[in-house]
Amino acid sequence: MELLVTADGNSRCVYSEAIDLSVLGKIIIQRGSHVEPDQEGKWTADLSPVNGPQLGPFANRSEALKAETDWLREHWLVPPS
User: Which domain of life is it from (predicted)?
Assistant: First the structure.
């Protein structure tokens, strides 16, 4: 699990249950994307909750989830410049 801690003491990560985040303090969990099927059964990852793009379409949900996680790690889970 990658955890970004900023200079002001806040942190963010792509949520998983790998560690108990509550030991770090108050947690606020917010949606980073919406991974949903379209009417044709193709999957997209809409990253608009973090001002990102819509990725896809993908044939499988697992492909959309991987693309979502890869995008978040590369573009959102980075220190502010």
Answer: Bacteria
- Are the C-beta atoms of residues 30 and 49 closer than 8 Å to each other? yes
Structure tokens at 2: 């990658």
Where in the chain are the domains?
3-76
- pTM of the predicted model as reported, rounded to 2 decimal places: 0.85
Cα separations in angstroms, 40 against 25, 68, 77: 43, 20, 32
pLDDT single digits (tens) 9-66: 889 999 888 999 999 889 999 999 999 999 999 999 999 999 999 999 999 999 999 9
What phi, psi does 79 have (nearest 5°)? Answer: -60, 145
The partner residues of 44 in beta bridges, in order of sequence, read 36
**φ/ψ (deg, to 5) at 33:** -165, 175
> What pLDDT score does 9 carry?
86
